[in-house]
């Protein structure tokens, strides 16, 4: 299996504060890699650095073997790298359909009209509620629907790799279920590779093939999910601790 | 009744200049969150470019093709030349300071305004210049017993047509959606593959182009132009922008036309009102800011979390 994304020993700073202090990870074809960690561990910074939104102080990021800095950030989508950022970031005064189709903007010269329609239908099948609401302004959607729209907008260009930042943040358990159902589905049916940043470690580990745990801007631990869930440190720090809660879960 | 109707036509015509200039303010503000202080002076520049075109070039066109082609040529010339000026201004005054934040950008815009005003004065002189009367059509249209100067009608339909095209581009095309997306969230737009720099260049090109067009129309309408008139026009168009809802294209059109009509009617019906014309404008600005700061069409969609 080919490696799609290689992050090699990157450092990123906000002024004097080092947010990433030498992070290395890789994402292979048809893989879901989860990045876990507490608030401020550097998860979002990692994704933003990969997308070229933050300058690297050191190290490099290779996408399909090419240095990511040889592209302008807006060119990455066309190369097959999509980013569904934290907080959904949908355009509230544009309609649901306009939001969705903007996901194709970066590849507009490569996609025929018939193909556009097909892609739109595909997203509407993944998230039927978006079809019902397609003429509504995106700002009138519920939080869960907005997240679905954000994910749909990220997927519609059929990227090779999707960077997904906290898709379950602040959502009701039922919506989280649905979003993870879709993540599983696109992974199994479409073979999309995913770098998934999550606070909901249990959920993330249930879909991931491999996981990294970030602490203070470094990879503290990595491994296959089945190994990590039995690791005592992981259990206590990220999976709800031991003792009474553990037994309840 | 006749007076009212004539004043109304005047108001809508003047309002359509305001609307064209307001459109430029609104687009630039929408994408850059910048009040482009140089915009009024680009309007003046367009007015002078159209003047020069009429004086030097139009005789040739007028002789061969007729008066109207000279007029349309001047408008087109100012549109294109001002688009070029807009690109130049963006390159020289704005692009170098994008990274420095919003305040340096505003200061740079103010500096550009002063520069343009003085450059216009240096080139064309500080006195009033007068659009040559033999090159501006005076024919009138008879309509329901009223006489409508054809020039006003042409100006009106031309500006409405241009505004409609603008509206169509921004609201109905894919690139327009990209412009609106960039205005809302530049970083997200980048992540979707939108070349934000191109969107910025688009608004800084088209805004001044529309302003330049309005400048020529204004010159033909009032005949005399002066190097410092952009300041006043800029403020009025800015008022129109606020009135309609800033960052909103239909808002700029509605605000511009409405401001022109209110101003003209108040000036026409209140004794001695002409002298207070500008006062009315700013009274409107103050009232809008107090009672409806988002403008007539500027409604915010509640963002659910």
From TrEMBL, chain B:
* Membrane topology, from the record: Multi-pass membrane protein
Which InterPro entries does this entry report, sorted A to Z?
ABC_transp_permease, BCAA_transport_permease
* Transmembrane intervals: 12-30, 42-61, 67-89, 101-124, 144-170, 199-222, 242-267, 279-298
GO MF terms held by the record = L-isoleucine transmembrane transporter activity; L-leucine transmembrane transporter activity; L-phenylalanine transmembrane transporter activity; L-valine transmembrane transporter activity
- The record lists the organism as Candidatus Caldatribacterium californiense
One Gene Ontology CC term in the entry: plasma membrane
The protein's name is: Branched-chain amino acid ABC transporter permease
Choose any GO biological process term that the UniProt entry carries and state it.
D-alanine transmembrane transport
Q: Could you tell me the keywords of this UniProt record?
A: Amino-acid transport, Cell inner membrane, Cell membrane, Membrane, Transmembrane, Transmembrane helix, Transport
């Amino acid at each position: 299996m080919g490696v799609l994304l290689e992050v090699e020993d990157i450092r990123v700073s906000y002024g004097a504060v080092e947010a990433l202090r030498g992070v290395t990870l890789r994402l292979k074809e048809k893989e879901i890699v989860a990045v876990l960690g507490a608030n401020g561990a550097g998860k979002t910074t990692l994704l933003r650095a990969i997308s070229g939104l933050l300058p690297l102080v050191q190290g490099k990021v290779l996408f399909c073997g090419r240095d990511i800095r040889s592209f302008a950030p807006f060119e990455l989508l066309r190369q097959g790298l999509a980013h569904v950022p934290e907080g959904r970031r949908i355009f509230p005064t544009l309609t649901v359909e306009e939001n969705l189709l903007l996901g194709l903007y970066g590849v507009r010269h490569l996609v025929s009209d018939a193909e556009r329609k097909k892609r739109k239908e595909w997203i509407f099948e993944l998230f039927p509620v978006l079809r019902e609401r397609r003429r509504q302004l995106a700002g009138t959607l519920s939080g869960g629907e907005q997240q679905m729209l954000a994910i749909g907008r990220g997927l519609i260009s059929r990227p090779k790799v999707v960077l997904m930042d906290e898709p379950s943040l602040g959502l009701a358990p039922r919506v989280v279920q649905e979003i993870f159902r879709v993540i599983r589905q696109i992974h199994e049916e479409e073979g999309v590779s995913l770098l998934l940043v999550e606070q909901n470690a249990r959920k993330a580990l249930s879909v991931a093939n491999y996981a990294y745990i970030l602490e203070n801007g470094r990879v503290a631990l990595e491994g296959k999910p089945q190994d990590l869930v039995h690791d005592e440190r992981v259990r206590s720090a990220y999976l709800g601790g031991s003792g009474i809660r553990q037994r309840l879960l | 009744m006749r007076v009212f109707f004539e004043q109304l036509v005047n108001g809508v015509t003047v309002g359509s200049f305001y609307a064209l200039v307001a459109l430029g303010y609104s687009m630039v503000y929408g994408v850059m969150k910048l009040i482009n202080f140089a915009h009024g002076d680009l309007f003046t520049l367009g007015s002078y470019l159209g003047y020069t075109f009429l004086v030097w070039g139009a005789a040739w066109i007028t002789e061969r093709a007729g008066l109207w082609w000279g007029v349309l040529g001047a408008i087109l010339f100012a549109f294109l030349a001002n688009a070029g000026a807009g690109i130049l201004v963006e390159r020289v005054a704005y692009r170098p300071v994008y990274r420095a934040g919003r305040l340096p950008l505003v200061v740079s815009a103010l500096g550009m305004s002063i520069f343009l005003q003085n450059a216009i004065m240096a080139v064309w002189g500080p006195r009033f210049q007068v659009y040559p009367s033999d090159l501006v059509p005076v024919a009138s249209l008879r309509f329901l017993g009223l006489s409508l100067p054809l020039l006003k009608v042409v100006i009106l339909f031309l500006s409405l047509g241009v505004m409609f095209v603008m509206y169509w581009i921004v609201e109905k095309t894919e690139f327009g959606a990209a412009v609106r997306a960039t205005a809302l969230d530049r970083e997200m737009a980048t992540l979707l593959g939108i070349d934000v720099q191109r969107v910025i260049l688009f608004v800084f090109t088209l805004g001044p182009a529309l302003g330049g067009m309005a400048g020529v129309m204004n010159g033909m309408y009032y005949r005399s132009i002066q190097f410092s008139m952009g300041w006043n026009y800029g403020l009025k168009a800015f008022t129109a922008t606020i009135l309609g809802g800033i960052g909103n294209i239909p808002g700029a059109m509605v605000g511009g036309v409405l401001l022109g009509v209110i101003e003209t009617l108040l000036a026409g019906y209140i004794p001695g009102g002409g002298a207070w014309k500008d006062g009315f404008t700013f009274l409107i600005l103050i009232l809008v800011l107090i009672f409806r700061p988002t403008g007539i069409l500027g409604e915010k969609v509640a963002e659910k979390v």
